[in-house]
Amino acid sequence: MLKAQHQQGRLITDRLLHLGKQPQLTADTDKQTLHNLLTDFIRMYRPHEAREDTVLFPALRGIISKHEFDSLGEDFEKREHQLFGENGFELFVDKVAIIEKQLGIYDLARFTPEL
């Protein structure tokens, strides 16, 4: 199921990118589509991430050695540099921050409940 959800996540991302190429979302149907895609993604992602964090990744550490785990991290970092350049991660973090500010979701304090 996790693999199927990754595939669905890619489809949702492709549709979001397609919508994002429009200069503005003026049609109500486009706005509703954007809302539905984001809602569907969030609904799927929350339990998906929780499962990976609490079951999958801890199990992986029990299956492979520390050396193999560290080696995987190095392989992922090499691949990141191949795809996005030496400072690719930082560049994408900055781009995401700009988008979050435009959407009004950058300041996490706004979403933290006061008890």
Structural features, described:
It is built from 4 helices and no strands. With 115 residues, the protein is mainly α. α1 runs antiparallel to α2.
According to DSSP, the number of beta strands is 0
**Secondary-structure element sequence?**
HHHH
Beta content: under 5%
Question: Helix count?
Answer: 4
Summarize model confidence as the mean pLDDT: 91
Largest sheet: none
Distance between the termini: 36 Å
In short:
The chain has 115 residues and is mainly α.
Topology:
Layout: H1 2-20, H2 28-63, H3 66-84, H4 88-103
Helix pairs in contact: 1-2
Core attributes:
115 residues, single chain, 78% helix, mainly alpha, globular, 4 helices
